[in-house]
Specification:
single chain; alpha/beta; TIM Barrel; five-stranded parallel sheet; 11 helices; 9 strands; binds zinc ion
Length: 252
């Protein structure tokens, strides 16, 4: 039996998520900038302690503003995936803007990596009805927006299964939901993640965590990430994987 896969994914939004939701309000926007300025480094230092490689979904504008953060993510051996050019959901974009943004963000991220970027997560987890076809046409291997399943599946386009693998996400495995939407504390959060981990381990599905450097990069919240890493490490057959490695090894 293959190891139980654990995917730690980090959405490097920078200011863009708050700029979209609360434009011009520094109180919010500076929280976003904390991610690429400080939080991402704290997270990478933690991952280094456990020799874990992760996947960072990076907004194009954030890569332009904080190139040093993107370079550091790459130099430490993590994967870079596309997370839009701005943080607007694609369902709110005109069709020609959506495809332009996907191409633009992938192109500028590939200038950093020097290799093809194969993964994508739509800003705000809001794809349009065109998104999956666009991603297939552009050669992406995986997308990660859907919440209706714990198991991966191939997205359907015009009723036919495509070769675009969907890596499902979940509200109860997202740091933003706990701390911003629900006002949870660190202990409550890690308790839920451990219970969810046990259930998914039993089902042999997948444990895919979505964290944000502007959220989990704070000192106390980092202890929650550390807690779930140590919890997962207690299991003998757990493997922390970059998303594209997982897709190729388990779905290739
Ligand atoms: Zn995001």
């Amino acid at each position: 039996m293959k190891p139980f896969p654990v995917l730690l994914t980090f959405d490097l939004d920078g200011e863009t998520a708050f700029e979209e939701m609360h434009p011009g309000i520094g109180y919010y926007v500076t929280q976003g900038g904390y991610g690429p300025r400080k939080g991402v480094y704290r997270i990478m230092d933690l991952l280094d302690q456990y020799d874990i490689k992760a996947t960072f979904c990076v907004v194009g504008q954030t890569a332009e503003r904080y190139p040093e953060a993107v370079e550091e993510i790459i130099s430490r051996g993590h994967e870079i995936a596309c997370h839009g050019y701005t943080h607007r959901g694609y369902n709110a974009l005109d069709p020609e803007i959506e495809i332009e943004y996907i191409k633009k963000s992938r192109g500028l991220l590939e200038d950093f990596t020097g290799e093809r970027i194969l993964g994508h997560r739509t800003p705000r987890w809001r794809p349009s009805e065109r998104t999956h076809k666009n991603l297939v046409d552009l050669g992406f291997l995986w997308n990660s927006d859907y919440m209706g399943s714990e198991e991966c599946f191939y997205n359907k386009i015009d009723g036919e299964a495509s070769r675009l693998l969907e890596i499902p996400v979940a509200y109860n495995l997202d740091d933003w939901t706990f701390y911003f939407d629900w006002g949870a504390n660190v202990k409550e959060t890690v308790d839920v993640w451990e219970i969810e981990f046990d259930a998914r381990y039993k089902d042999r599905s997948l444990f895919c965590l979505t964290n944000h450097p502007q959220v989990t990069g704070r000192p106390s919240r980092l202890l929650c990430l550390k807690g779930i890493i140590e919890y997962a490490c207690k299991y003998p057959d757990v493997e922390f994987m970059k998303a594209t490695d997982y897709v190729k090894e388990y779905w290739g």
